Amino acid sequence: MFLILRCRKCGRFLYARAGTKSKKCVCGATSQVRRMIIVDRAEDEREAGEKVRFYQEREFGKPDFVTFR
Asked: Which of 10, 14, 18, 64 is the most buried (most CB within 10 A)?
């Protein structure tokens, strides 16, 4: 089981395996999982990644990457 979490500092969505004590966000903040907001749950890692992408896009919009040809 995986937990979909929200960073307490920047608001980014993350996932962690249930039972994990702490999680480090890309913003540099390290938080205890038990103190983070649990947004959702997922059965496997693939589903957790899809849910994180869904919540990120819903909250912040699609990433604006430029592709070169």
From this structure: 14
Assigned token pair, 19: 């039972």
Q: Is the overall model pTM greater than 0.85, yes or no?
A: no
Model confidence pLDDT, tens digit, residues 31-69: 999 999 999 999 999 999 999 999 999 988 887 766 666
CATH of the domain at 36: 3.90.820.10
Tell me how many domains the chain contains.
1
How far is Cα 15 from Cα 23, in angstroms, rounded to an integer?
Answer: 9
| Domain range for 28 | 2-60
Q: In the numeric block, which tokens belong to residue 39?
A: 């947004």
Q: What angle do CA 47, 43, 2 make, to 5 degrees?
A: 85
> Which H or E run includes 42?
strand 37-42
